[in-house]
């Protein structure tokens, strides 16, 4: 190759579309649909919700008036809010406690080799794929005053309560319906955590003469505790968002006993058309979820540490 | 048989019995639903309750179709769920691939922005979204159900799962593609997407179920019965006095649950593992 042609190439304009530039362009193009979706259907609506919470709406004229923090002040004087928050706490707390203990119990029982383990895993998981509304309808039917559960109780001579019509039993019914439907997810997560516990630890403990209970509390539980904590938070966040089960099973009643925050948001915004106050309540829900997610990130660090 | 193997056998039997009892509330409601749907109405409330009837009838099934445009509602749910799943698979595999394999300025910051989509419950955004779609003239259409489900929270979870999957692919595969003269779209479509079948099927199942189960959104956006989706339609089987038409409702519920349940039982291994894989990683 002559010196002249090499010079000529050196002074020619380099091509604009280098591989690197093409890469950058395709990177942006590839993420555009997803980014647009999040902007349009999550970020802008959250911004609007904040704006709505500072305004009062007249549904009939569609007129908006800026009221500043008035709705936030109304939170403090809302006579229904304390019982709504209490119901939210009982529901989420009840769901998470039952979900974790039951999920863990089933996972521990299924984490041994025996014929039928896969079948049982399928059975416990099956409600997860049954749609929430169908599942809740069936339970609503079973929990009727003259429904299947009281029918069963009657055969052993017990007069069952009218489950959905009394405050305490209605809350219990909603919690159990929700737990049985969703515990399969936690069971699967716990099973994969249990399978990560090194079997040498169990063997060593058994050599030292440790019994089943000691092994569980001293080895299994500490090693999977980070998963338990994380699952607990995911479950609470999920419970905070349970709408269909409440709407279909009790409609928030009797009185306010099963009106959780999500359902209250829906009522204020779409039944009472109070868009400003409904948005304020929705932002309250968002702050709960964000707080829990923040906590989850803190725990996640701990979890990653355990893995190493 | 030695006493030791006998006691281990006894333990095993005890384990299966305990699991069997524990499984009752998980399994019986579904069986009950199917059984009650073929019973004559008075027998549904018979005491003691039974899972059996001597007079099976399918009248509740035909009633489900005459009381509401149930076939239409069924079609709505199916086509919306399929469309949402297809869009989500496309969008999330593109975005997941870009976030995992392409280095471009701002990628990390933009990824955090996308992840915020996972954090916001749909109940928080439903009021503003309703107003936005009202302005766009899309209330009482399927557009809000399709667009929000396909592109917001469920899609963000999908993008996250896809990214985790693509990160683990060996770099040599892409280099081989480059030597063949493929650009980024070619590498994504010809090399990475075919390899991502396990992740894509997990994402596909999760997205389909999310869309299939939506309840709040259709309740808010739809008012005409012929536009309803199944979960919403199920709650409308009440007679003129507001009384529940139990057998019709249970027959309709059976029709919405059984197809998904059967698919799940056939593909349960892949399904459960897909979920475990996506859950905490």
Automatic annotation (TrEMBL), chain A:
The chain crosses the membrane at residues 28-52, 84-110, 122-142, 170-194, 215-240, 246-266, 278-299. It is found in: Cell membrane. Residues 85-296 form the ABC transmembrane type-1 domain. Coiled coil: none annotated. The keyword Transmembrane helix applies. Belongs to the binding-protein-dependent transport system permease family. PROSITE patterns: ABC_TM1. Its main location: membrane. Gene3D superfamilies: MetI-like. It is a multi-pass membrane protein. Keywords: Cell membrane, Membrane, Transmembrane, Transmembrane helix, Transport. This is Carbohydrate ABC transporter permease. It comes from the Bacteria.
Automatic annotation (TrEMBL), chain B:
Keywords: Cell membrane, Membrane, Transmembrane, Transmembrane helix, Transport. PROSITE patterns: ABC_TM1. It is a multi-pass membrane protein. SUPFAM superfamilies: MetI-like. Residues 74-267 form the ABC transmembrane type-1 domain. It is found in: Cell membrane. The keyword Cell membrane applies. It comes from the Bacteria. The chain crosses the membrane at residues 12-35, 78-100, 107-130, 142-166, 187-209, 246-267. Signal peptide: none annotated. PANTHER family: ABC TRANSPORTER PERMEASE PROTEIN MG189-RELATED, ABC TRANSPORTER PERMEASE PROTEIN MG189-RELATED-RELATED. Belongs to the binding-protein-dependent transport system permease family. This is Carbohydrate ABC transporter permease.
């Amino acid at each position: 190759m002559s010196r002249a042609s090499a010079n000529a190439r050196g002074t020619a304009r380099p091509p604009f579309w280098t591989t690197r530039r093409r890469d950058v362009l395709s990177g942006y193009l590839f993420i555009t649909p997803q980014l647009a979706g999040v902007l349009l259907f999550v970020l802008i609506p959250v911004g609007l919700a904040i704006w709505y919470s500072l305004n009062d709406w007249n549904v009939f004229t569609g007129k908006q008036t800026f009221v500043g923090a008035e709705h936030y002040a109304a939170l403090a004087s809302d006579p229904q809010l304390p019982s709504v928050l209490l119901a939210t706490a009982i529901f989420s707390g009840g769901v998470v406690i039952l979900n974790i203990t039951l999920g863990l119990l089933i996972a521990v029982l299924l984490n041994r080799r025996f014929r039928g383990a896969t079948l049982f895993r399928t059975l416990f998981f099956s409600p997860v794929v049954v749609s929430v509304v169908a599942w809740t309808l069936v339970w609503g039917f079973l929990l009727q005053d003259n429904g299947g559960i009281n029918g069963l109780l009657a055969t052993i001579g017990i007069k069952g309560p009218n489950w959905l019509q009394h405050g305490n039993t209605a809350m219990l019914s909603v919690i159990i319906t929700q737990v049985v439907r969703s515990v399969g997810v936690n069971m699967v997560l716990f099973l994969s955590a249990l399978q990560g516990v090194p079997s040498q630890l169990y063997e060593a403990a058994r050599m030292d003469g440790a019994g089943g209970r000691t092994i569980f509390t001293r080895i299994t539980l500490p090693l999977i505790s980070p998963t338990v904590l994380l699952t607990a938070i995911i479950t609470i966040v999920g419970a905070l968002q349970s709408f269909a089960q409440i709407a279909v099973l009790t409609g928030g009643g009797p009185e306010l006993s099963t009106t959780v925050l999500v359902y209250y948001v829906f009522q204020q915004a779409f039944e009472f058309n109070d868009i400003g106050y409904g948005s304020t309540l929705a932002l309250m829900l968002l702050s709960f979820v964000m707080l829990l997610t923040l906590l989850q990130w803190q725990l996640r660090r701990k979890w990653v540490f355990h893995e190493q | 048989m030695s006493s030791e193997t006998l006691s281990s056998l006894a333990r095993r039997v005890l384990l299966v019995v305990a699991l069997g009892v524990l499984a009752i509330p998980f399994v019986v409601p579904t069986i009950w639903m199917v059984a009650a749907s073929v019973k004559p109405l008075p027998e549904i409330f018979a005491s003691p309750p039974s899972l059996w009837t001597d007079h099976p009838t399918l009248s509740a099934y035909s009633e489900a179709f005459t009381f509401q445009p149930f076939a239409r509602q069924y079609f709505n749910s199916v086509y919306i769920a399929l469309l949402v799943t297809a869009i989500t698979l496309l969008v999330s595999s593109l975005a997941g691939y870009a976030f995992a394999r392409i280095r471009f300025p701002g990628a990390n910051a933009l990824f955090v922005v996308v992840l915020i989509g996972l954090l916001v419950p749909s109940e928080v955004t439903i009021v503003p979204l309703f107003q936005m779609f009202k302005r766009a003239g899309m209330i009482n259409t399927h557009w809000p159900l399709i667009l929000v489900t396909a592109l917001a929270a469920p899609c963000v979870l999908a993008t996250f799962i896809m990214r985790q999957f693509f990160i683990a692919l060996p770099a040599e595969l892409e280099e081989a593609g480059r030597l063949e003269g493929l650009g980024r779209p070619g590498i994504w479509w010809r090399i990475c997407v075919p390899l991502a079948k396990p992740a894509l099927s997990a994402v596909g199942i999760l997205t389909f179920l999310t869309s299939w189960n939506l309840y709040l959104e259709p309740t808010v956006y739809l008012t005409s019965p012929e536009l309803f989706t199944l979960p919403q339609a199920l709650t409308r089987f009440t007679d003129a006095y507001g009384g529940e038409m139990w057998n019709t409702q249970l027959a309709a519920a059976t029709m919405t649950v059984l197809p998904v349940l059967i698919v799940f039982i056939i593909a349960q291994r892949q399904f459960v593992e897909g979920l475990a894989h996506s859950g905490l990683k």
